[in-house]
Amino acid sequence: MVHGSKAPDNAAPKDLPALDKLLRECAPVVAEHGHTLVAREARALLDGLRARAVAGELPRAELDTLPQTLAARVTARMQPHMRAVLNLTGTVIHTNLGRSLLADAALQQVLALTGSPNNLEFDLATGARGDRDDLIEDLLCELTGAEAATVVNNNAAAVLLGIAALARGQEAIVSRGELVEIGGAFRMPDVMAAAGATLVEVGTTNRTHPRDYQAALNPRTGLIVKVHTSNYAVQGFTASVDEATLAPIAHAGGVPLMTDLGSGALVDLAQWGLPAEPLPQAMLAAGCDVVTFSGDKLLGGPQAGLIVGTKAAVGKIRKYPMKRALRLSKLPFAALEATLRLYLRPERLVQDLPTLRLLTRPQAQIAALAQQLLPAVAAAVAPRFTVEVVALQSQIGSGSLPVDRLPSAGLALSAVDGRGRTLEALAVVLRELPRPVIGRIHEARLLLDLRCLEEPMPLTSQLSVLKESLA
Ligand SMILES: *Cc1c(COP(=O)(O)O)cnc(C)c1O
């Protein structure tokens, strides 16, 4: 018996080419990518083939196309794991899909500035060392009415830094109704501990009163913290103390008031028929010393944590050593500044900011797109699936405004055999497209909410691949 070759059309280990020979046959690939990568992939390829040959499971025909196989492997290896996808989940600011989309102005600024030296920490007027905060502080103050502002890596960092800078080694008072967890490891009690502050809980889950805060104030108190309960709603017999009521209580006790808004829209969303979110400017007007919010939620910019407030409080935060470790890097910094500048032209925001544009898209427009796409999508998934246009409810996402829904539309795909497993398989095929399509399965249908598809092309251009994959 010939070892490793159970059938005549299977290759034996000795049939595999030597590494050098394979590399010579792939000279153009080596010329493009260099020896290191191509040789590493060639070795891995040959190892895999050898194991299959030993097992007698390597069809000889595979050896005829080894150069092409290797070239494809090398190309695949150079594809980043992080890829553009189509978000047809119906959740506009989707935390798992990268949250807000950057405006064109922000994208251009990132491209222009990060491939070149820039004045990130250089004062062009004096030629001396500068502070990156100076590039953005005036703008943030103008937009929010704050005395001072700074930015860090994300809002979680802003909250951590704010508490550490203002209350490390002291007590920080928080209502029991606001001890939130915001996805993953960000839980207010843990953040307090990490910041070195002692959490003092007041009130109850559903009701907290001004007197609860007053009773907790003592000489060890460093800070009162309010947290916007953005990702859930407490309904029924509830009471909380708003910032305007709490600020005088904090100040009478000689401590600052910090509020974490989470999403923090910079403009009143109600003007576009969206649910209202508390604005940083309103929080500052109510007497808060520090307000923190995210850059990549409703603001529509890059991941960032924005901190606005009084000179005294923001000054302490800026000087706190942890700030250096949490500072915003130049890429998002460039994008953030460009995004904030768009807010100087509020009338144009709906066009300029993709997040706002998507959130305000009328249902009729989305439904028209669904109608337009229906025949082509139906043809691509036939005969195993049927497609219909349906009314849907989009969500804003990222914990903002959790109970509100936006009337939307999309395509609902149903398996002709009616089995759930078939739908799961379809979801897999959609995720394997060159630009993965992410929908959601709900009540035995795969739903593609088209709110976030502004152009048909990214979907229609992939329908032939989809049809082939399903064949
Ligand atoms: C989202 C959120 C955070 C965290 O913000 P990131 O920018 O994601 O770090 C903190 N607090 C609240 C209330 C939030 O909603």
From TrEMBL:
Primary location group: cytoplasm
Superkingdom of origin: Bacteria
Residues of the L-seryl-tRNA selenium transferase N-terminal domain: 15-50
Modified residues (N6-(pyridoxal phosphate)lysine): K297
Protein localization: Cytoplasm
GO molecular function annotations of the record: L-seryl-tRNA(Sec) selenium transferase activity
UniProt-listed HAMAP family: SelA
Protein name, entry field: L-seryl-tRNA(Sec) selenium transferase
Annotated source species: Pelomonas baiyunensis
